[in-house]
Amino acid sequence: MTVLEMALSQYGIKEIVGKKHNPEVLKYFHDMGHDWVKDDETAWCSAFINWCAMWANKPFSDKLNARSWLDVGEAVEVPHIGDVVVLWRESPGSWKGHVGLFIREAGDYIYILGGNQNNSVSIKAYPKAQLLEYRRL
């Protein structure tokens, strides 16, 4: 199974609002050895892509920060569906980011399949201006 197929198999998984936490979200952390995470409010975009890559037998960062994916695979200029997309958040120089899988480009937007997008596994459009790199695993 590919990374993209693993991600699609989780499509629609959502955080649970309130004191309960979705065990499906927590498995992304726990299967990666991050058992200290006990809630589904902890940023989980990188945990999700790590989980998908691990189960697809592809390289993964094993880190919970999105920008850790800048060191995995190889940078590519023209992405293929399923390539990793690394975006900046707040500012290009910030440590914060977002990571997901490339679906398509349309105008000034990149459509990304990822976790923790509107608190769920979904496809969402992000401004192309926030792109740091496309990475091929």
Structure description:
19% of the residues lie in helices and 30% in strands. By secondary structure, the protein is of the alpha+beta class. It has a single domain, classed as SH3 type barrels, CATH 2.30.30. It has a 6-stranded antiparallel beta sheet with strand order 1-6-2-3-4-5. A hairpin with a 2-residue loop joins strand 3 (97-106) and strand 4. Helix 1 packs across helix 3. The longest helix has 11 residues, at 45-55.
* Alpha carbon gyration radius: 14 Å
Helix run count: 3
Query: Quick one: how many beta strands?
Result: 6
Cα separation of the termini: 14 Å
Indicate the CATH topology.
SH3 type barrels
The amount of beta strand, in percent, is: 25-35%
Which strands sit side by side, in order, in the main sheet?
1-6-2-3-4-5
**Proportion of helical residues:** 10-25%
Structural class computed from helices and strand pairing: alpha+beta
Look at the structure and give the CATH class.
Answer: Mainly Beta
The overall pLDDT, averaged over residues, is 96
Question: Stretches where pLDDT falls below 50 for ≥5 residues?
Answer: none
The main sheet comes to:
6 strands, antiparallel
* General form: globular
What is the architecture at the second tier of CATH?
Roll
- The secondary-structure element order is HHHEEEEEE
